[in-house]
């Protein structure tokens, strides 16, 4: 048998294997589609409990750190609980079965319908929280979901889905509503899944996002994070430093929403660095910065051995003895430019924070814009300020879908109990980031809506209504 025949046979076997999983998902979804709202909501609660059970949460968090080497156990426990609890809060009382809205003045009735089988590609950075979020949203809308985990996170996904099956059995829902691609998960298997399902959702690798868009299946991908945050001269510096440190160190900066750059106006620059030092930030000198750069990037890519490690671990690994202390929480480097020739202007997925010194808010605005055009356009930016005009200018002019004000960015961007953003681990970046959505991925993206349209009294404007003001302004006369 020739090499091409071997490849074709392997491809056929992969397609058949995925087809079997998808067929089981379709059968389960067709049964579940007939469940009423109460039974759907009970299935949602069951899936949440699969992770929220304290013993399971700890077990899965420990396993995640063990097999991926990313983040830390205590923060993953918090993330799993907080994200899942917040999602349940958002979904509470939301109708996803039958009539969901009636607009008699328009003669319209809206009916929620499932999309069918969802294929969800999930990253190694959140191997329990992200699959749970996607599974809950999919099932809330009476879909089945098939998870494609990263190879590093496959063991966590398998164990999580096992617990989900136990809970689905408990409430009498089909266990094949939630499935996963078995190890070893290959690129070919994921691509085949994308081709066979009804909707693809991708969080993580931009290569996977591009593959989803090219699959021929409707797809929602999310963009790259590289969050810049402005500190203006009206900011509460100690509050800002505490929140930035909390966000930047959470789970060793595995979140794409953690701060990557601080853009600090000159009037408060020294005081802000002092406040950051009080939070365990260590400002590296030029020699130490060069040493970190040489190790953090290898052949133009981030060094996976240093991703999502603590600041002290990174300092120890690269030989920065001054920062090799337990109280070192963040490594800070000063930078001037943004772009490929300035690696520290990019996303770092580690507690490494780039610091820019600028003259004033106008210069800060320009620097943030420059950073985002290099990487992270569409995702989000932040600001610590008491000046609402600065906030509004960012919202009106900066190419981002979220402006986070006076908050710990990684905590706030994906929804928080003290802001109104939907709880999510997937941030749509709009057309700026090459995405079809600009909001946080949420349950509304997992459903179709059928609209019944009945007649109403005609509402037809006259030509005078439409053009009268225009005619008058420009001295025109209708023909």
Automatic annotation (TrEMBL):
Keyword Manganese: no
Domain of life, source organism: Bacteria
One Pfam match: Aldedh
Transport among keywords: no
GO molecular function: oxidoreductase activity, acting on the aldehyde or oxo group of donors, NAD or NADP as acceptor
Keywords: Oxidoreductase
Start and end residues of each Aldehyde dehydrogenase domain: 6-277
This protein's name: Sulfoacetaldehyde dehydrogenase
Organism encoding this protein: Thioalkalivibrio denitrificans
Lineage: Bacteria, Pseudomonadati, Pseudomonadota, Gammaproteobacteria, Chromatiales
